[in-house]
């Protein structure tokens, strides 16, 4: 009896452990760090048996990491990475074709435009120019309104922008300049702008953070962070020169054998998830979700007309040329 009882207890414990064991999936992301907990916790309310192991860095770093790892990547899902990066990863066979539940409720303009769709946008992220009005007044600096204004000698040493090799914000703006100005004029513009650059950062948010803190006057940066900082009382004006860079953050499946990974992708395009995105992004993919975000600039009149396939295909050549000319002003990684 004692042996049978012990075996029964052992079996019960083993069964209980199996029932309550969580499956952990690895998710590569470029989401802002302060969003991760909300996204994970909301997902787990309906999927308590799935845990997320985040691998987070800026867009450029995550993209380079995935390209280096290739089909041997440890990622199960990529969630919160630029659509242009995912287009490139699709060509490399890193992400797999997959049709999430509810995809018909998403705006077609924010989805993989190719056959055998493999990535699905959930929000659009935009760039902005942050301008510290207090420091500018102290230094007698006028407010710029155009990209050309930023090349004026009066702004020398007062501009910070992201390095496009490590920051998606940086790369989207470089792409926007090249596509709207043309290649020759775009590179000429960046050469003249470089004369006024204090440094290039590895983070797309950092230039605006430094502008808000008075460490620089002008930061070419990430509009989401800019809106948050302004809402917190930062003395910054948000400027939208015509031809502002943008991209869509998107989700894609890597591990097609994982039901948990598929569940996350399905949830990531749901109305519930889009309502969560909409608390920080004014433009999201779900057709029925369209709330406003406090202090987020009206980007509709200023955004560049972007060819995302060209952005993806030209990436390596553009970054190689940019680094050869401008890398020396990039800050050291801490």
TrEMBL record:
<protein>
    <submittedName>
        <fullName>Putative 2-aminoethylphosphonate ABC transporter substrate-binding protein</fullName>
    </submittedName>
</protein>
<dbReference type="InterPro" id="IPR026045">
    <property type="entry name" value="Ferric-bd"/>
</dbReference>
<dbReference type="GO" id="GO:0015888">
    <property type="term" value="P:thiamine transport"/>
</dbReference>
<feature type="signal peptide">
    <location>
        <begin position="1"/>
        <end position="21"/>
    </location>
</feature>
<dbReference type="Pfam" id="PF13343">
    <property type="entry name" value="SBP_bac_6"/>
</dbReference>
<dbReference type="InterPro" id="IPR017663">
    <property type="entry name" value="ABC_2-AEP-bd"/>
</dbReference>
<dbReference type="GO" id="GO:0030976">
    <property type="term" value="F:thiamine pyrophosphate binding"/>
</dbReference>
<dbReference type="GO" id="GO:0030288">
    <property type="term" value="C:outer membrane-bounded periplasmic space"/>
</dbReference>
<dbReference type="GO" id="GO:0030975">
    <property type="term" value="F:thiamine binding"/>
</dbReference>
<keyword id="KW-0732">Signal</keyword>
């Amino acid at each position: 009896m004692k042996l049978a009882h012990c075996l029964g207890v052992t079996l019960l414990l083993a069964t209980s452990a199996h029932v309550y064991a969580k499956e952990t999936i690895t998710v590569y992301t470029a989401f802002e760090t302060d969003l991760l907990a909300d996204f994970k916790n909301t997902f787990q309310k309906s999927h308590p048996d799935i845990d997320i192991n985040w691998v987070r860095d800026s867009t450029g770093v995550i993209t380079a990491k995935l390209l280096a790892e290739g089909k041997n990547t440890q990622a199960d899902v990529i969630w919160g990475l630029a659509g242009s990066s995912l287009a490139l990863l699709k060509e490399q066979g890193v992400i797999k074709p997959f049709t999430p539940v509810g995809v018909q409720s998403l705006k077609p303009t924010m989805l993989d435009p190719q056959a055998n769709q493999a990535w699905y946008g959930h929000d659009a992220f935009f760039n902005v120019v942050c301008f510290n009005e207090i420091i500018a007044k102290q230094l007698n600096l006028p407010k710029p309104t155009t990209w050309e204004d930023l090349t004026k000698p009066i702004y020398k040493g007062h501009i910070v922008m992201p390095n496009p090799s490590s920051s998606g914000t940086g790369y989207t703006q470089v792409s926007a300049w090249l596509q709207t100005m043309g290649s020759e004029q775009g590179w000429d513009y960046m050469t003249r702008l470089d004369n006024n650059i204090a440094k290039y950062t590895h983070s797309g948010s950092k230039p605006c953070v430094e502008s808000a803190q008075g460490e620089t006057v002008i930061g070419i940066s990430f509009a989401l962070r800019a809106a948050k900082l302004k809402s917190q009382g930062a003395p910054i004006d948000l400027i939208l020169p015509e031809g502002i860079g943008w991209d869509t953050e998107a989700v894609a499946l890597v591990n097609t054998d994982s039901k948990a990974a598929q569940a996350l992708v399905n949830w990531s395009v749901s109305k519930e998830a889009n309502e969560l995105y909409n608390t920080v992004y004014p433009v999201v993919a779900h057709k029925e979700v369209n709330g406003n975000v406090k202090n987020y600039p009206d980007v509709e009149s200023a955004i560049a007309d972007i060819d995302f396939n060209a952005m993806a295909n030209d990436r390596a050549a553009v970054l190689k040329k940019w680094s050869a000319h401008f890398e020396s002003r990039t800050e050291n990684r801490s």
